[in-house]
Design a protein that fits this description.
Layout: H1 2-12, H2 38-49
């Protein structure tokens, strides 16, 4: 499923905007107004790939 999504996006956008990796999750941290907290997603990504 991830490969299908990546190849679809690659055909729709410029090469420098291509998606390199996709991760599906059941939970996305949200603020009080309902916006996704991208800062926390980035922090979670950094902590999971740290050596």
């Amino acid at each position: 499923m991830e490969d299908d999504l990546i190849s679809y996006v690659a055909g729709q956008v410029a090469p420098y905007k291509k998606v390199r990796r996709v991760e599906f999750t059941d939970f996305a941290p949200r603020s009080a107004t309902g916006k996704i907290l991208r800062r926390e997603l980035r922090a979670r990504e950094r902590s999971s790939t740290a050596p």
